[in-house]
Amino acid sequence: MPVDVLATVLDNTQLADDYNVLRLAAPEIAVEAAPGQFVMVKPAAGVDPLLRRPFSVFEVIRDEHGRPAAISLLNKKVGVGTRLLFEARAGDRLACLGPLGQPFEPVSPPAQAWLVAGGVGLAPFATLAEALRARGTETTLFYGARRASDLHRCDIFERLRVRLDVATEDGSRGMRGLVTGPLERALAALPAGAALRLYACGPTPMMRAVSALATRAGHRCDVSLEQTMGCGLGGCYSCVVRVRGEDGVPHFVRSCIAGPVFDGRSVVWEELGGH
């Protein structure tokens, strides 16, 4: 069950002019959080912003005894709420509800795991990479951004021995172009019959393209949708998405309860946008 706590800000590390990582003392959430789950955070008292906002649990941080003690959030400053989180100071207390949502299912060997992240879509993958590492699963992160300065916290994945394959739109690091470029190349080089699970998070057009590439190659791709959420508990119906059931018939579900992780083959992408 999710818990609602006032989480104390331990520190705020600014990564760039609009990116930061916020560490929150929230042991009740940290001990329960699974890869791909999220929290609903209200960055300030009052009515601006009125509602909480969803953030993937970026890291589960352990104390000196190895016990889960805190979580971190990867934040990009784009509006009022994210600006307040960008400016948060150590000692501030934030209303934090979680963990929420359906998590990723980490695969075990002999399967490989390929994580595909675009921009702030990196957020759910640090905990997933840690879970895969614990299983001994060979893991690759395909990480795309506009420019090299928008690629953050690669050190976390290098420490977990995750192979990095990077793409930037301006060519300042890695392959020039979209992250689907190196992914498509890697899929073409994969030996026939290789066991593989893909996981994707980022802009909707990117996830749609990754899901399509995976399906054509005969592999499953789980996506973490980034829908607008008002409550995170299914009460406001602000995050509904259309998916296909086992019978192939589309129906609406609330992504905060049925997701945010979905099998990409089930998502009716045409209604989410992105070409």
Q: How would you describe this protein?
A:
With 275 residues, the protein is α/β, with parallel strands linked by helices. The protein has 2 domains: 3-100, Elongation Factor Tu (Ef-tu), domain 3, CATH 2.40.30.10; 112-226, Nucleotide-binding domain of ferredoxin-NADP reductase (FNR) module (Rossmann fold), CATH 3.40.50.80. It is 20% helix and 35% strand. The chain contains 7 helices and 16 strands. The strands form 3 sheets. A 7-stranded antiparallel beta sheet has the order 4-3-7-1-2-6-5. Strands 11-10-9-8-12-13-16 form a 7-stranded mixed beta sheet, sandwiched between helices. Strand 1 and strand 2 form a beta hairpin. Helix 5 packs parallel to helix 6 (204-216). The protein is globular, with a radius of gyration of 18 Å. The chain starts with a strand and ends in a 12-residue tail after the last strand.
Helix content: 10-25%
Q: Taking Cα atoms only, what radius of gyration do you get, to the nearest Å? A: 18 Å
Count of all domains: 2
Q: How many beta-strand segments?
A: 16
Content of β-strand: 25-35%
CATH architecture of the largest domain: 3-Layer(aba) Sandwich
